[in-house]
């Protein structure tokens, strides 16, 4: 092992990893370094966008989309657009950002049976100040308001958007999540071979496989043969903070047909392998 790799390995160990993270947080380090050390207001977003850019580079795709389902006050969407800008600047992969939300009224009036966790959420939760949020959005970011039952099919059908590389799902409800995941399967969909996902509501005390986002994932996989959603495996290996909770909430939508057609010699080669493998 060369001295540089030995130093990096040492910095990842206790207690040096805390010192190293604090040092990197005040230095002008790259987006990929911040991704490895979880230095971001939303490290799940930064990691997802970095992984998507890596996948796009491998496929020879010049531009991708990053999507947030469940915008609410908009802090996450603003963080996503900022990390998209940083990753685009570093990798050269252009990144457009799309935020889907029911609108200023918050969660929809209809919340269904136990699958929607009415014990946890009520209609009107997480309202949006639309004017205030729009003033914070950059040109790369598009806010799409309305029920995902209508907005997702319209987006797939009409939006002039590059392939989707990363999706954050934070719609809270099983019913809304089920409708949102159609973005991966509707005719005309545009995806990478592997589209990275983050599910926000799968690791709480009240969550279980028979309701909420976990049930939506299970039903999606049962209903679709060519696109399958599974956990993002191995991403916590060799990371300085492998215990971070968000790492358990990262998933991948595998386009099995596109993967079956692919041959390794078609790849463009590594772009940020130290981000993918630590």
**How large is the radius of gyration?**
19 Å
Q: How many β-strand stretches? A: 7
Give the ordered list of helices and strands: HHHHEHEHEHEHEHEEHH
Q: Structural class from helices and strands?
A: alpha/beta
| Shape category | globular
The portion of residues assigned to helices is 25-40%
What does this structure look like?
The chain has a single domain, classed as Rossmann fold (3-Layer(aba) Sandwich), CATH 3.40.50.150. It is 38% helix and 17% strand. The chain has helices at 3-11, 16-26, 31-36, 43-59, 75-91, 130-134, 148-158, 174-180, 212-223, 256-261, 273-277, and strands spanning 63-69, 94-101, 141-145, 164-169, 191-199, 227-231, 250-255. Helix 4 (43-59) packs parallel to helix 5. The protein is globular. It starts with a helix and ends with a helix.
